[in-house]
Design goal:
Strand order of the largest sheet: 2-1-3-4-5-6-7
CATH architecture: 3-Layer(aba) Sandwich
CATH topology: Glutaredoxin
Number of strands: 7
Order of helices and strands: HHEHEHEEHEEE
Helix content: 25-40%
Largest sheet: 7 strands, mixed
Shape: globular
CATH class: Alpha Beta
Distance between the termini: 17 Å
Number of domains: 1
Number of helices: 5
Strand content: 25-35%
Length: about 150
């Protein structure tokens, strides 16, 4: 979270008690019971003010099938928020943009477990794509390209 965003959120919480909390959506995170990076990813969302419901699952394939997440873009864990899915290590900024813009998408995905992605440590050379998956079944496309700064 950028400093300016944090200051605005903090000021809102002081001036309008309950407003900052009420505006943050609930994020349900489905994960393998033995995965630690999923918890790190979910913690980053909790730290940003999301209400996080972390659920250990024994059959992630069933959850992904229900949400119609293509096998080619599957990641480590699957979250749902405000009618969208977030598959894998989607950056916080991408999820915030999705929720602000409300495009006609089923969700966002980061395939695999890219080094340096949210929950996967820090790597100044991190390079991966956040894919947008259209609701209409169209081809996924790059929503955000994460590249070294």
């Amino acid at each position: 979270m950028k400093r300016r965003q944090f200051i605005c959120m903090a000021a809102s919480a002081v001036l309008l008690p309950g407003a900052a909390v009420a505006s943050m959506p609930k994020l349900v995170v489905h994960k393998d019971p033995y995965c630690g990076c999923c918890e790190a990813w979910a913690s980053a969302f909790a730290d940003a003010g999301f209400e996080v419901d972390l659920r250990n699952e024994n059959d992630m394939d069933a959850i992904r099938a229900r949400l119609k997440i293509p096998a080619s873009i599957q990641g480590c864990h699957t979250a749902t928020v405000n009618g969208y899915f977030l598959e894998g290590h989607v950056p916080l900024e991408a999820a915030q943009r999705l929720l602000a813009e409300k495009p006609a998408l089923a969700g966002l995905a980061v395939a695999g477990m890219p080094k340096g992605s949210l929950g996967m440590g820090t790597d100044p050379g991190a390079s991966y794509d956040v894919m947008a998956i259209p609701k209409d079944g169209g081809a996924p496309y790059v929503y955000i390209a994460v590249r070294p700064k």
